[in-house]
């Protein structure tokens, strides 16, 4: 039987399931400590596998296109924060101060890797440049996102210094990633052969963080703090932010004279935010019940961006074939 078109993908259903389980059976007492340890180990494994999967040759192939990369980074780390600040008078009355902080956290995050590359490939954009930009965005975000969080939100959830936050992220995210890159020479072929089921490592890690975060949030009363009208307002806020980001990246890229393949790459690499990086990073930067409220905008934005970008990618994929060659610079 064919899957209904309106039915969300399996991972989206699993995310909703994790939130539902946390709502009905939140971790309490000693269970919280156990889940936090398991979650931290799972996050380390997640970034180790990211390092093992990422091909250095594909990244080097796209490095020369510096104008494209500079624009993607500007959209990710400058345009998004500016949009978040500009929308404050509209969003704060619509979704409340706490969810607005979650929107600002969303704006500070790096771009996605897998989905940005996948959509660029489907739409026949500049794939080597997409690989380079998306991968570099994730690595730069490890250092830049905590600084942006401090500038946009005023303070970290745990009250530590920016250097402390960066240090924790380096230990929990960057070091496992580097270890994965080192181990790639021995396990890279095995990872490539088994990438189908290894994606379960990514998804399981994120589901663990979501369950742990929402367990904290439920105990603190998140669903009393976020009524249905506010939740619907958050969906509209995410749609508005994504629409402005997509429109801005496309118009800026066209104004700067990039060709169609490059504009497609800029569109998908510069308008997306990473759930896979954002949720583990939030686990390091923030603490307690506030974490659930802060990642809720990211979870919604992630699903909306996937659905919208899938439609856009299919539209560009349907254009007539031309004799194009992937560019390296």
UniProtKB/TrEMBL annotation:
Question: Does the keyword field hold Signal?
Answer: no
InterPro entries named among the record's database cross-references: Na+/solute_symporter_sf, Put_Na-Bile_cotransptr
User: Which Pfam families would you find in this protein's record?
Assistant: SBF_like
Gene Ontology cellular-component terms for this entry are: plasma membrane
Q: Which domain of life is it from?
A: Bacteria
Q: Which UniProt key words apply to this protein? A: Membrane, Transmembrane, Transmembrane helix
Listed transmembrane segments: 39-61, 68-87, 99-119, 131-153, 165-183, 231-253, 274-300
This chain belongs to which protein, by name?
Bile acid:sodium symporter
């Amino acid at each position: 039987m064919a899957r209904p078109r309106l039915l969300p993908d399996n991972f989206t259903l699993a995310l909703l399931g994790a939130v539902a389980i946390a709502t009905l059976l939140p971790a309490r007492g000693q269970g919280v400590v156990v889940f936090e340890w398991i979650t931290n180990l799972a996050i380390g494994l997640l970034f180790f596998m990211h390092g093992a999967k990422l091909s250095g040759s594909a990244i080097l192939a796209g490095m020369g296109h510096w104008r494209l990369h500079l624009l993607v980074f500007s959209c990710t780390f400058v345009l998004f924060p500016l949009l978040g600040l500009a929308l404050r008078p509209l969003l704060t009355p619509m979704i409340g101060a706490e969810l607005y902080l979650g929107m600002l956290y969303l704006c500070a995050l790096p771009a996605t890797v897998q989905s940005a590359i996948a959509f660029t490939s489907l739409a026949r954009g500049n794939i080597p440049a997409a690989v380079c930009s998306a991968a570099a965005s994730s690595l730069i975000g490890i250092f830049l996102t905590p600084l942006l969080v401090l500038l946009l939100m005023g303070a970290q959830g745990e009250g530590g210094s920016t250097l402390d936050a960066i240090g924790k992220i380096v230990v929990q995210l960057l070091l496992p990633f580097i270890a994965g890159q080192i181990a790639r020479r021995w396990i890279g072929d095995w990872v490539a052969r088994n990438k189908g089921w290894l994606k379960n490592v990514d998804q399981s890690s994120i589901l663990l963080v979501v369950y742990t975060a929402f367990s904290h949030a439920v105990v603190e009363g998140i669903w009393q703090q976020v009524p249905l009208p506010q939740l619907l307002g958050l969906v509209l806020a995410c749609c508005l932010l994504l629409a402005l980001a997509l429109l801005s990246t496309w118009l800026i890229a066209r104004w700067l004279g990039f060709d169609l393949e490059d504009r497609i790459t800029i569109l998908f690499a510069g308008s997306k935010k990473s759930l896979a990086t954002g949720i583990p990073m939030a686990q390091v930067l923030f603490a307690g019940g506030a974490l659930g409220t802060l990642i809720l905008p990211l979870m919604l934005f992630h699903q909306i961006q996937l659905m919208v970008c899938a439609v856009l990618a299919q539209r560009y994929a349907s254009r007539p074939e031309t004799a194009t060659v992937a560019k390296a610079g």
